[in-house]
Amino acid sequence: xxxxxxxxxxxxxxxxxxxxxxxxxxxxxxxxxxxxxxxxxxxxxxxxxxxxxxxxxxxxxxxxxxxxxxxxxxxxxxxxxxxxxxxxxxxxxxxxxxxxxxxxxxxxxxxxxxxxxxxxxxxxxxxxxxxxxxxxxxxxxxxxxxxxxxxxxxxxxxxxxxxxxxxxxxxxxxxxxxxxxxxxxxxxxxxxxxxxxxxxxxxxxxxxxxxxxxxxxxxxxxxxxxxxxxxxxxxxxxxxxxxxxxxxxxxxxxxxxxxxxxxxxxxxxxxxxxxxxxxxxxxxxxxxxxxxxxxxxxxxxxxxxxxxxxxxxxxxxxxxxxxxxxxxxxxxxxxxxxxxxxxxxxxxxxxxxxxxxxxxxxxxxxxxxxxxxxxxxxxxxxxxxxxxxxxxxxxxxxxxxxxxxxxxxxxxxxxxxxxxxxxxxxxxxxxxxxxxxxxxxxxxxxxxxxxxxxxxxxxxxxxxxxxxxxxxxxxxxxxxxxxxxxxxxxxxxxxxxxxxxxxxxxxxxxxxxxxxxxxxxxxxxxxxxxxxxxxxxxxxxxxxxxxxxxxxxxxxxxxxxxxxxxxxxxxxxxxxxxxxxxxxxxxxxxxxxxxxxxxxxxxxxxxxxxxxxxxxxxxxxxxxxxxxxxxxxxxxxxxxxxxxxxxxxxxxxxxxxxxxxxxxxxxxxxxxxxxxxxxxxxxxxxxxxxxxxxxxxxxxxxxxxxxxxxxxxxxxxxxxxxxxxxxxxxxxxxxxxxxxxxxxxxxxxxxxxxxxxxxxxxxxxxxxxxxxxxxxxxxxxxxxxxxxxxxxxxxxxxxxxxxxxxxxxxxxxxxxxxxxxxxxxxxxxxxxxxxxxxxxxxxxxxxxxxxxxxxxxxxxxxxxxxxxxxxxxxxxxxxxxxxxxxxxxxxxxxxxxxxxxxxxxxxxxxxxxxxxxxxxxxxxxxxxxxxxxxxxxxxxxxxxxxxxxxx
Length: 951
Hints:
By secondary structure, this protein is of the alpha+beta class. Strands 1, 21, 24, 25, 26 and 27 form a six-stranded mixed sheet that branches. The longest helix is centred in the N-terminal third of the chain and has 53 residues, at 2-54. It is globular, with a radius of gyration of 38 Å.
């Protein structure tokens, strides 16, 4: 028996020993996991700091990190302490109410129970810290550093900064505390329901009473803040909305007084509930809750009644004073309150002298469209499979003393397009590190083949300006991180059968000497970076090379325009310009443009050097209170001194202009009754693109504004009335110098029709000669692209211009400008180029523009009768050509019907060649165009028409 017992005890001891070992192994594994998680988190923080420091933005990183840490600590303390207090009170109440024999043994072990309470409190505290810092760090920094708007709301008389910065923080605090208090109330109610402790235990009653009292105060605070919220919403009750954005009649008469009544009721009802709880009258505790709910229902009912029976029958009269605030504050929120509004007569006054006076505007009329132009750049100017143009942008430059609008794009590197055998680690990380050069072309000139006429082209760039630093290390491409200054020479650009190499000379990368190499090898997950002998202490890591990711990583609190554009600076270096937006959703009385966002400014311009990756944030609108707030938060982030060659290329962002133009389409109405009825709503017109009607986008153009002496770069968009196609107005914004951001509107007469873009498009479609020629081109493997239809205001009149592209139906298509349509008044012509089309228009509307040239032709005809006889020859030749075209077209259709695709394509090529021959002969026989503006009428080979001809 002893032996048996001894054996049994020995076995138990061994099991206990093994269990202890397993426990220690488990603890060790858990510790390793926690250390790894903490280490990875710390590694990310350290490498982020090093990267930010390399760009001189470490203060931004530390400011955000410090605020997050403090908020996390505050949230942890709040949630953990309140949880500890709650559980500890419950435990103490149990010990007082129950006999020790009635409780589980663990509740009598003070050390164990305290460890459990601490553990639960820590878990809840971690959860709370993530909530508080996750939703509040930016609001907290703004709250502590906000700048005043200097404008008060008309109802409460509070500065707008209260609604932008203070009110959201107060609401956040109340909602967080309210949620936490309700959670604790539920926990307490569950704990104290055991044996009905809440009826007998004073400790339980006091605990529940304190929680109820705190909830009552928070509920009262919520109701006190509600009136301020009425200035930023259209809701008047759960079921109805007002026509007013912001305070309405129902809010003023019902909802604001109701909020104060409910705040007082919440306090009174809470006190009532606490008294009933202490007295043990649990059933009567529901009475104040029922009364409070009843008051809420009555308030909603009163709001419904007033809205239905007082406001709706006479809505305009009731809402009139509030509509005025809605109108004025919405204009202020979108910077539309200083709009320069002028009348535009829309006269038919075009003549040769007007064209001569506005030669700068005429010379900058766009003959190319960005959309097909990108395909041309990628086919003609890439040269190697690993080069790519991601975008073609529009800007303006001083070229040989002339102010000229241009297209330009950067030639970036895409290592994904390298041959498979070249996709080695060395090539992708050390050798192929950057793109090269920029292509620039005229907006208003094309080659005889219809291709853009380049101002900068080829590798190395050659043209109208010197590009001293053509390497593109940072751009729009999603380029991987690379290492420069290694033992491997970097490929720069191809030169004949050889490649030119280069060494990176900037110092904005992360130095890979010392421990940095280990840290970033771990962060990159790139073991070769650590062990490769090609990487030296002088090497630099160029990380986050996509410019959008780069600026978002530095300043994630800004919203960035998705269309960055390239700028060639005066010193020949290249930078990317990015527009940053500051917006908010609590501007009083303002109508939202997206979600709840109802205030926006483009207060910051960001540049990223294409070579070094250096980032600069410039103040574009120093008066913006949101910008001033961020300057208070990050004193070293934003620079107010803008270099002249950077400011010269400030471009008003299209996205912001579209938001403002859409808002102005409604908020231009100053008469409140007209505004209320939306009687004069303006909208963007439509235009034809390919075979679809699409909404017209704002576009940049260079023009001389009425009353101004020089051309300037503006962005503009036409307006048409709602559900109508005639042009009612056009809106523009200036981009140059001290006039940057000045907005203006020209309104056309309402008593007569001014052709709108879609009406012009329809008339082009209805023109028999133009439509016949376009239909002919769109057959047999070709496609017609209708480019941007541009409305070009010139003094007191307006002309329309639309380029016509032809491209083949295959992946390697090369769009070419083959014709230009010009429309003016009732006249439409289509010619081989803009100069000819404009001259044809002038010959129609201003016959005197033909001048002495026509008279000389008549005199020569009188003096040479034989030449008059010869003048009949072109007519006979035209008839023969038309018959030849007809026969070829019939052969083409027959080949198509029989499925002879190659034969059809050959016939179509022959047709196109003959059209080109006719155009070429017309260009040589007729001296019209820019070299001879007084030339004769075009021959029949050119297509030109007007409404009078069509009729």
